[in-house]
Amino acid sequence: MADALTLWLLAQAQAGKLEPTIAGGPPSFTGVLGQQVFDTKYGLTWWSDGSAWHANGPGLIRARIYQLNSQSVPNSVFTRINLDTVNYAGLASMNGGNGAISLPIAGVYHIDYAVSWSSAVSNRMLIYLYQNGGEASRAIDIYAPIGFAGGSDNLQANAGDYFQVYVYQANGSAVSTSVNPNSHLSVTFVSS
After folding, report:
1. From CA 187, how far away is CA 65, in angstroms rounded?
2. What would the pLDDT profile of 165-191 be if each residue is shown by its tens digit?
């Protein structure tokens, strides 16, 4: 959900009460130092340092997806977690076919991710955040019993980049994720 100020600014801009406004920034023109432009598409205020435009978030760019159905994770195989349900989606988009969140603009994003197991994994377990199909962050690499693990990171991303959650477990046999919304991935725009 967007905060009250973002919603108010968006309503004012859509009513034509804020000048200037754009839709889907950053602005295509060069701004003067300190100039601000409100983005009616993303709910952000872009500001100029005299040579480039910058934005601070989150505006409307945030999303959270989670796993509604249990998933069997084979022993000793890197496995993508099937995050199949939208909790909320601002202007980041969820692809249920591959359990990913795609991003609309370049910038720094705060990402939270976690996996919940139906029973404790008693041997090696790793949880990874993938960006565009490759490892971007590793949350945990443990050798002790655990039923829930997660992490967070701030990462730079380009427009169109996507994030997914992968796990690896060496329990000796397949282990299932639990049926609850704790296995999740969420992204929030921080800044450009």
Report:
1. 9
2. 999 888 888 988 887 778 899 988 888
Measure the CA angle with vertex 25, ends 55 and 65; round to 5°.
Answer: 75
What size, in residues, is the chain? 192
Nearest-CA neighbor of 149 among 114, 176, 125, 181?
114
Same domain, 28 and 101: no
Examine the domain organization and report whether 28 and 82 are in the same domain: no
Q: What are phi and psi of 3, to 5 degrees?
A: -75, 170
Distance CA 91, CA 100 (A): 14
Query: Domain of 165?
Result: 62-191
Q: Please state the pTM of the whole predicted model.
A: 0.77
Contact 122, 171 (CB under 8 A): yes
On the question of a cis peptide bond just before residue 181, with omega within 30 degrees of 0, the verdict is: no
* Residue linked to tokens 């997914």: 164
